[in-house]
Design a protein that fits this description.
By secondary structure, this protein is of the alpha+beta class. The protein folds into two domains: 94 residues, OB fold (Dihydrolipoamide Acetyltransferase, E2P) (Beta Barrel), CATH 2.40.50; 304 residues, 2-Layer Sandwich (BirA Bifunctional Protein, domain 2). Helix content is 30%, strand content 27%. It contains 14 helices and 18 strands. The chain has an eight-stranded mixed sheet with strand order 6-10-11-18-17-16-13-12, with helices on both faces. A hairpin with a 2-residue loop joins strand 14 and strand 15. Helix 5 crosses helix 7. The structure holds 4-amino-1,4-dioxobutan-2-aminium adenosine-5'-monophosphate and magnesium ion. 4-amino-1,4-dioxobutan-2-aminium adenosine-5'-monophosphate binds next to strand 11, strand 17, strand 18 and helix 14.
Length: 436
């Protein structure tokens, strides 16, 4: 086999309707292995799936058989064989090998059943080979592709804001600070301020960047590094912004249900459930949300933040995402626009995912007036000098505009029904760990 050029088949080819009787050339990793009665039963895995392979000494020869017997779980092989129908095999097919070459027999694979969560996180670089992770990350790739596809359709241009910054946009306390050649630097918490700058020449812009939050919150929905998709739209008010978000969520859910039905089903999410999510999504003002929560026994009143427990209570029975609108300005960032009819609230909305998952989108109209913006920056205890370049945007053709950020891991967490958000990212960063 070595040295002979062959075109390799994807493993999934063995499950095609017309595959029985065909000779296939496969390569991949040993997913499972057992021997019985002098026959070796392997499960071969590549990126397209798995297939059972039977290896007999008389078919492959003594040397290849002996080598195959020594292959560990996750060892790598190339083989050729014929597809046979086998009602006992998962998928009803097996490949009967007639040639086999071991590429790397591997050392004993450290991951097996019933290991602790900590151990699996230490071995995350190997754990991500597991089938659950394969489904989650394929789904995540489809989610990102569907978001980008939607932006192209809506003429929103992708731009590349910086991650290393000189000021903390969302609030200093939750920013990771670093030493930037002797001056303070920060890891970006949001690309928003840069997107606002790029909006003046391009009007409709978006970016997908890592955002960092130095929050010590050990919850099932917080990461210290996450994938942030942010959009900024010129000439946009709150109703138009929420309609854009509805179209986007609908498009992404429908696209993913069509393109990744098997991954969704394997993760316990029937794809039809996602395809059935249709706009308009229900809207609840912050004031009404507080009243409802207080009636349900939560110790909240006007001004209380909605945390994990409150958002869970609001969305647990829901099938559609829910917009909570017009929060008190003290709860929200300095750049948000005051509601025209109510000086206490801002033109902002969070989109909460149903079934208890909670906030996935943070959205708002931006303050356009220079004086009020400076006032708000002072009110949150920041120095307007640190925002000089941002304030320039209000000095040269300020226009109404609005935008939002969606946490891709939060979104996938909901779709894939994961217990913990860390299982929607291959190498999770949490207060407890930043390796591997
Ligand atoms: O609500 P946030 O903080 O909003 C902003 O950063 C705005 N500047 C975005 C904008 O308007 N351009 O964050 C937006 C979203 C949240 O709704 C949530 O989905 C996600 O980012 N997010 C997190 N995801 C995982 N771990 C964390 N610690 C997160 N913090 C926010
Ligand atoms: Mg938020």
């Amino acid at each position: 086999m070595a040295g002979v050029p062959v075109a390799y088949d994807p493993v999934a080819r063995a499950h095609d309707a017309d595959a029985v009787g065909r000779q296939l050339h496969l390569r991949g990793w040993v997913h499972r292995s057992r021997s019985s009665g002098g026959i070796l039963f392997l499960t071969l895995r590549d990126r397209t799936g798995t297939v059972p392979v039977t290896v007999r000494r008389d078919a492959v020869g003594d040397a290849a058989f002996a080598a195959a017997e020594r292959v560990q779980i996750e060892g790598s092989v190339r083989l050729s064989g014929t597809v046979a129908a086998d009602p006992r095999a998962p998928g009803g097919r097996e490949v009967r090998a007639d040639r086999l070459e071991v590429i790397d027999p591997g050392e004993p694979f450290p991951i097996f059943k019933d290991q602790t969560e900590e151990f699996l996180l230490d071995k995350r670089h190997l754990a991500i080979r597991g089938q659950e992770f394969v489904h989650v990350f394929r789904l995540k790739a489809e989610v990102l592709a569907a978001f980008r596809d939607f932006m192209v359709r809506e003429s929103v241009m992708e731009v590349t804001p910086p991650i290393l910054t000189g000021n903390a946009a969302e609030g200093g306390a939750e920013a990771f600070q670093l030493d930037y050649f002797g001056r303070p630097g920060y890891l970006s918490q949001t690309a928003q301020l840069y997107l606002e700058a790029m909006l003046f020449p391009h009007e409709r812009v978006y970016a997908v960047t890592p955002s960092f939050r130095a929050e010590k919150s050990r919850t099932r929905r917080h990461l210290t590094e996450y994938t942030h998709l942010e959009v900024e739209l010129a000439w946009c008010d709150l109703d138009e912004l929420l309609a854009f978000i509805e179209r986007m969520v609908e498009h992404v859910l429908r696209t993913v249900a069509a393109r990744a039905p098997a991954d969704l089903a394997a993760l316990g999410r029937p794809p039809e459930e996602l395809a059935a999510v249709r706009a308009p999504f229900p809207r609840l003002s912050y004031g009404d949300a507080i009243d409802r929560l207080a009636r349900d026994g939560f110790g909240v009143r006007w001004g209380s933040d909605l945390g994990t427990a409150e958002e869970r209570a609001l969305t647990l029975p829901e099938r559609l995402p829910l917009f909570v609108t017009r929060y008190p300005s003290e709860l929200k960032a300095f750049y948000m626009l005051r509601s025209p009819g109510d000086p206490r609230t801002v033109e902002a909305a969070d989109l909460l995912a149903p079934e208890g998952y909670g906030e996935i989108v943070g959205a708002s109209c931006r303050e356009t007036d220079l004086g009020r913006l400076v006032e708000r920056i002072r009110a949150v205890g920041a120095d307007p000098k640190d925002y000089e370049w941002y304030l320039d945007l209000r000095r040269h053709g300020s226009v109404p505009h609005a935008g939002f950020g969606i946490g891709i891991e939060r979104f996938v967490w909901w779709l894939a029904r994961r217990e913990h958000i860390r299982d929607t990212t291959p190498f999770p960063r949490t207060p407890a760990r930043h390796t591997p």
